[in-house]
């Protein structure tokens, strides 16, 4: 469903999960689900697609957390063209035959978001009118290694070169310890992640060959299934080593975003009252987010300056470590260096 790739098709199918994906057309944002199966129609109507037009393709995913607020990944709404609509309750990647298509009123990114690798990869979208669908509750409880979680999305289904799923898909994974996850990511050989460390706001899951999130899944829900048949939101798709190569994927950890969500959104509900200590390794000290730099137009050949040490390549939704050579290499495809 994603890329280290940021998984976004809205911006390529979600921006930094295969690294960071953000596109400029209706198919621009997209992380995907590799493996898995079609989700039952009408069962997960709090699942949201981010679009550039009412009936266009969903490039990133999201979750309806209140009648007027959607939670998604920060990289889905930063660094490129922002979505203009959300599709709530739809089973399909594109079209308007079911669900609701609601214009976006406002977007608020986490104040410490810089890129998915550093964490805090979360944003909240305010809708122009309330949705009729029932929102999903959020979980303050830390999900522990070994717990079962479920991923939902329209991401690519056969790896980075594949196409997005035309219908909503689901796949089940186990949560992976952050230290173990970081070791696996570093050992993958993925450029730019040789020294990556999982921080408190990262949540890892998966790691089974042929089963993963991918481009187009970015921002989409990772949920815990409860004994009463309900689901609780525990993560949002962030990034990963593309795709299905046996390396755990990375998600934003919802239990670490309680203050941000409570300060920003209205009408959401938490399904538990206590916030346990997060079982993650040494914390990553965030730096305040800097104003978003608009993506360059095709005529300017891309920008080669950078403040965060990485450059975003909209054509593939990937981020790459910054270097003058890298910028020159991709200049023809308009690398954006925030």
UniProtKB/TrEMBL annotation:
User: One GO MF term, please?
Assistant: serine-type endopeptidase activity
Biased region (Pro residues) positions are: 278-297
Q: Which SMART domains match?
A: Tryp_SPc
The UniProt entry's sequence similarity note says: Belongs to the peptidase S1 family.
First and last residue of the signal peptide:
1-19
Q: Which UniProt keywords apply?
A: Disulfide bond, Glycoprotein, Hydrolase, Protease, Serine protease, Signal, Virulence
Q: Which InterPro entries match?
A: Peptidase_S1, Peptidase_S1_PA, Peptidase_S1_PA_chymotrypsin, Peptidase_S1A, Trypsin_dom, TRYPSIN_HIS, TRYPSIN_SER
Q: What is the organism field in this record?
A: Aphanomyces stellatus
Annotated Peptidase S1 domain ranges read 33-266
Q: Where is this region: Disordered?
A: 272-302
Membrane-crossing ranges are none
Q: Which domain of life is it from?
A: Eukaryota
Q: Which GO BP terms, alphabetically?
A: proteolysis
Question: One Pfam family of this protein, by short name?
Answer: Trypsin
Check the record and name the Gene3D superfamilies matching this protein.
Trypsin-like serine proteases (2.40.10.10)
Report what the protein is called.
Answer: Aste57867_5739 protein
């Amino acid at each position: 469903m994603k890329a280290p790739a940021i998984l976004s098709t809205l911006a390529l199918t979600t921006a930094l999960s295969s690294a960071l994906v953000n596109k400029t057309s209706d198919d621009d944002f997209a992380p995907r689900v590799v493996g898995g199966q079609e989700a039952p129609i009408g069962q997960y109507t709090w699942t949201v697609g981010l679009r550039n037009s009412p009936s266009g393709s969903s490039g990133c995913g999201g979750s309806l957390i209140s009648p007027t607020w959607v939670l998604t990944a920060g990289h889905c709404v930063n660094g490129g063209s922002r979505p203009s609509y959300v599709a709530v309750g739809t089973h399909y990647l594109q079209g308007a035959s079911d669900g609701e298509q609601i214009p976006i009123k406002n977007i608020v990114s986490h104040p410490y978001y810089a890129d998915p690798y550093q964490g805090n990869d979360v944003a909240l979208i305010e809708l122009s009118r309330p949705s009729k669908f029932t929102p999903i509750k959020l979980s303050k409880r830390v999900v522990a290694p070994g717990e079962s979680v479920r991923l939902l999305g329209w991401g690519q289904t056969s790896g980075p070169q594949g196409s997005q799923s035309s219908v909503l898909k689901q796949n089940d994974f186990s949560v992976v310890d952050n230290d173990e996850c970081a070791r696996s990511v570093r050992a993958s050989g993925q450029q730019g992640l040789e020294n990556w460390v999982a921080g408190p706001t990262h949540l890892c899951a998966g790691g089974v060959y042929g089963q993963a999130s991918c481009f187009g899944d970015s921002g989409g829900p990772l949920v815990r299934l409860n004994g009463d048949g309900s689901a609780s939101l525990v993560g949002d798709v962030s990034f990963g080593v593309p795709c299905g190569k046996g390396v755990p994927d990375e998600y934003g950890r919802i239990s670490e975003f309680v203050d941000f969500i409570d300060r920003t959104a209205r009408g959401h509900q938490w399904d538990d009252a206590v916030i346990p200590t997060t079982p993650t390794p040494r914390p990553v000290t965030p730096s305040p987010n800097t104003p978003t730099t608009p993506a360059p137009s095709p005529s300017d050949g891309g920008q080669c300056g950078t403040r965060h040490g990485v450059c975003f390549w909209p054509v593939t939704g990937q981020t790459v470590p910054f270097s003058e050579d890298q910028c020159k290499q991709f200049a023809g495809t308009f690398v954006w260096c925030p």
